[in-house]
Specification:
Oligomer: single chain
Shape: globular
Strand content: 25-35%
Distance between the termini: 26 Å
Order of helices and strands: HEHEEHEHEEEHEHEHEEHHEHEE
Length: 367
């Protein structure tokens, strides 16, 4: 990650993700403190938002890599590949026999990536005992934008709620349509954790709430909150590309800056500080606690644990706090960390991904 970036919306997303599979690395259950420290070190050295520099051409040579791996490891390896440099991944479900325990992952790497190193790091990070076999083919040109646009279709989150890419026509003009161009930030509405958070917001917002999107990425949750009836949304992130993407997406949805405010925070995730050169948020997200009726952090397991006090500090007493970006097996880690901070905790799941939600304890003092 760039510096010590934490937020999940931008983690492990290279360019715009073509796969609809889960998208990040720190989701395996850590077998030991040693391996957890090793992965934390890895995160400090890999970019959160893109394997391609912003100066790299969007039409460029590429490596097409076909990887054969155990079926039960395919989702996690797909995530890990994105974390360590793949620009997209997709599963070859049709080419897999029922009696075969292997499945193929097709992935794209830019010509600036060391494919061998990326695959080795990815396999090691999820605990594969053997390096999976793979074939590499060199392609002359790869139109990243075209491939992304072909793969990104309107997503119906629930009845009457659609996530629609900017270049597509909304299937239902009368529905609540969130128009999105994710750019280099995560948040297309396809991933289970994004859906879990959207469904939670849809049920929570009655009108007039103040909402904090902790790790805003594409701005999808902050935009959705306003469309559902919230009085205001604030989105924070550690990556300038996320703030740029969220700002553009707010404009696509005709949301004014005074309704949806975006703030770049330091790479260590301390939201009570403002990055040098940035104006403090006028709602006080970087200086005041207990300002929000709803706080959602859809990021990564490790930062959810490390930044728990900071996340909860922004919620009013009795306000709803939800954290996501975790697989079901990791819920006990979250429950242990957040139980002293939240009460009436509940867990919702989609496809083995989870969202943990509770209300901030009254009388709680957090730094």
């Amino acid at each position: 990650m760039r510096g010590t970036h934490f937020f999940k919306h931008l983690s492990c997303i290279s360019s715009w993700r073509i796969s609809s599979q889960p998208r990040r690395l720190i989701h395996g259950v850590f077998p030991s403190p040693l391996s957890q420290r090793r992965l934390s070190s890895v995160f400090r050295n890999f970019s959160t938002s893109s394997s391609l520099p912003t100066t790299h051409s969007l039409t460029s040579p590429y490596f097409s890599v076909r990887i054969s791996c155990p079926k039960d490891s395919a989702d996690m390896l797909s995530d890990a590949l994105l974390c360590f440099g793949a620009s997209s991944t997709s599963m070859d479900e049709q080419g897999s026999d029922e009696g075969n325990d292997k499945i193929c992952i097709d992935s794209i790497f830019s010509d600036r990536q060391d494919v061998d190193v990326c695959i080795s790091h990815a396999a090691d990070s999820i605990g594969l005992k053997e390096l999976p076999s793979y074939e590499v083919r060199v392609g002359e040109q790869y139109d990243w934008i075209k491939k992304t646009q072909e793969s990104f279709c309107p997503v119906e989150v629930t009845e009457g709620l659609w996530i629609v890419p900017e270049w597509r026509t909304p299937p239902d003009a009368h529905a609540t349509n969130i128009i999105l161009n994710p750019g280099f930030a995560f948040g297309t509405g396809e991933h289970p954790t994004t859906k879990l958070c959207l469904l939670l917001l849809h049920g929570l917002i009655k009108g007039g709430e103040h909402f904090l999107d902790y790790g805003t990425g594409s701005g999808i949750l902050a935009i959705a909150a306003l469309k559902f009836g919230a009085a205001s949304s604030v989105g924070i992130d550690v990556d300038p590309q996320a703030i740029t993407a969220a700002t553009q997406n707010a404009a696509l949805n005709k949301i004014s800056p005074n309704k949806m405010q975006l703030t770049l925070v330091p790479p260590d995730g301390r939201t009570h500080e403002v990055v040098e050169g940035q104006s403090p948020n006028s709602m006080g997200v970087t200086t005041e606690s207990e300002s929000f009726d709803i706080v959602i952090a859809n990021i990564l397991l490790n930062p959810l644990l490390d930044l728990a006090d900071d996340i909860v500090s922004h919620a009013k007493p009795g306000a709803v706090v939800a954290v996501s970006g975790i697989i079901s097996e990791q819920v006990p880690y979250i429950m242990e960390r957040y139980s002293p901070l939240l009460e009436s905790i509940s867990v919702t799941e989609i496809d083995d991904w989870a969202c943990v939600c509770g209300t901030k304890r009254r009388g709680l003092t957090v730094n």
